[in-house]
Amino acid sequence: MGAYLAQLTTNEMASLLLQMDVHAPSDVRVNIPITNFDEFYETFNIQAGGLMYRAPDERLVIW
């Protein structure tokens, strides 16, 4: 199952999937949620200005 989710798509295919699939694109399902965890920044030494950096006041906190 994991190999199915690790995919490369053309722009045309990505556009089609956005219109037809109820799920977010696979890179968004992974890359966006992890930016909400402080441990992510500590583990990978992500700094302000980095492509995956999200300011602390923009991170989602539920509990």
Automatic annotation (TrEMBL):
Single Gene Ontology BP annotation: proteolysis
Domain of life: Bacteria
GO molecular function, one term: metalloendopeptidase activity
Domain Peptidase M13 C-terminal, first and last residues per copy: 11-59
Species in which this protein is naturally found: Suicoccus acidiformans
Protein name, per record: Peptidase M13 C-terminal domain-containing protein
